Amino acid sequence: MKALASIRRSRTLRNTKAGPNSIKKCWPCPEKSVGRFITNIGRQSCWEATGPARATFLTIGPLIKQHLDTYSEPTPTWITWSIYMVGAAPETAAPTIIFCCEDESLRKRIRDTIRDSIILERHSGIALKHLPRAPDYNQLVQLASSSAMDNTEALDMQNPIPFGPLVFSTSRHPTMGQSLYIGTENHAGSTRKATAGGIIRIHGIDCLLTAAHAFNDTPMQSSNPGHQDEDLCFSDSDDDTDILPSPRSSWSSSVTVPLKPEDAALYCVTANKDIGKYAETEDEPVVGIRGIQLPEYASHVGDTLFLSTEGTKEGLDYGLVRLRNGSLDASRNDDLVFPDLMCPNTSRYLTSDLVFAHTASAGVVSGSISMTPTYMRLPNATAYQEVRHIKLKEPLANGDCGSWVFDALSNSLHGHIVAGSPDSGSAYIIPAYQVFEDIQQHVEVIKQRLEQLEKLER
After folding, report:
1. Fewest CB atoms within 10 Å of the CB: 81, 301, 343, 415?
2. In a domain, 248, yes or no
3. Angle, vertex CA 387, rays to CA 303 and CA 320, nearest 5
4. How many domains does the chain have?
5. Could you tell me which residues belong to the region Disordered (predicted)?
């Protein structure tokens, strides 16, 4: 492996000595891969990768993820990476995979792991760089409460909760875009705030979706507290020798198999696009050392049913809540299919960059979505998760995690918000089709838990 890496680096040196147009020769017509301008990195510009660069990344991104999942250890810091176009001008820009995290030595090791692999051998002109944060984020936070305390001792033992905390709301039947308060029955413990997504029906019972990290006792803080206002600049070691030339290039995109409707075991209840058009009028909760204060008029509306952190795909960051006042299908028919507009199959491939999100802080907010995926790994997680970058026209707020994001033209569901840079309106969303596929894999466990909860209430 080291010998192969040495050969590749020697090829690179020969190409970079060939002259200033060597990058352009390695990557034909780079201007066709240049999208929207993002920011400046030192004296260079950074653009969203589109066209051939994006198509190549759709092929190699999953391979890089698989390699890093196999050959890198969990770390106590956020890590993200994606492909961008970087250069002095669109005509001389190079597709650049940028690995981002606070720890410089760690992100260098990650870059070197990929540089020393054979993944990029068949793809010419791709550079590997590293930064303390992603070019389009000045910070990265999970959008639940910023502090929490262990609430185990505060649980009401007369109303046992076998699968997680109780869920409260100011509405008896919370709908998409409304606030959820995740805490304890007697209000003595910590409370975290999240946003209700849509409702799916499992085993004839209404279940609400939101973000799983809001159920944790210790939500993560900002990933870049010391770099928010700093100008980005590649380090001295990140020079043109990171560009990997190759005798062949490939523009083929990845192929995925759509989810078959007949395999679905869920029914998704749609909400009208205008629902939640206006933000909730409740008093703004107070953020303090004990987290979010539970409004006095909030009531117990649901129970934790299943969290993605219990499975093998913790990065999906979703939580299922069994609604206490939801409708009940007496037939208990499990073989139900998603309505067309909410079917996650339609959002596997993005056809439009216009979106809208149902947030608790600002109601329905419009924005745009990048068709170039990003990969993110949470602190101490074992695997990277594919996410999509969105840019909303309004800032986000604490508690907007779990907000569902839709295609503005087709109304198809893209996913739910899990992390972001609140002031800028930038956020990462988890693809909906991956969440629903994972729920289907755990549907038998979920059905058993629904039956257990019913028995406890008799």
Report:
1. 343
2. no
3. 10
4. 2
5. 219-238
CATH code assigned at 345 = 2.40.10.120
Distance, in Å, from the CA atom of 402 to the CA atom of 177, rounded to the nearest integer, reads 9
pLDDT for 312 equals: 84
195 and 164 belong to one structural domain: yes
Within-domain flag for 13: yes
On whether both 163 and 293 belong to a single domain, the answer is: yes
pLDDT score, position 26: 73
209 token code pair: 């979706």
C-alpha 109 chain-centroid distance: 23
Q: CB count, 10 Å around CB of 230?
A: 11
Query: Residue 94, CB half-sphere, CA atoms under 13 Å: how many?
Result: 26
Please give the structure tokens belonging to residue 316. 């999906």
Residue-range definition of the domain harbouring residue 95: 2-135
| Same domain assignment for residues 127 and 172 | no
Work out the number of other CB atoms within 10 angstroms of the CB of residue 107: 23
Give CA–CA dist 369/355, Å, rounded.
Answer: 7
CA angle 59, 27, 104 (to 5 degrees): 70
Mean pLDDT by 10 residues, the chain (458 residues): 44 41 64 95 95 96 96 89 96 96 93 94 91 89 58 42 86 92 61 90 88 76 52 67 43 33 38 38 35 79 92 90 74 49 60 92 95 92 94 93 93 91 92 90 89 82
- pTM to 2 decimal places: 0.80
- Measured distance CA(401)–CA(457) in Å, rounded: 30
Note whether 157 and 129 are same-domain residues: no
Query: What's residue 330's pLDDT?
Result: 52
Using alpha carbons only, what angle is made at residue 303 by residues 297 and 308, rounded to the nearest 5 degrees?
125
Do the Cβ atoms of 170 and 282 come closer than 8 Å?
A: yes
Residues 425 and 321 grouped into a single domain:
yes
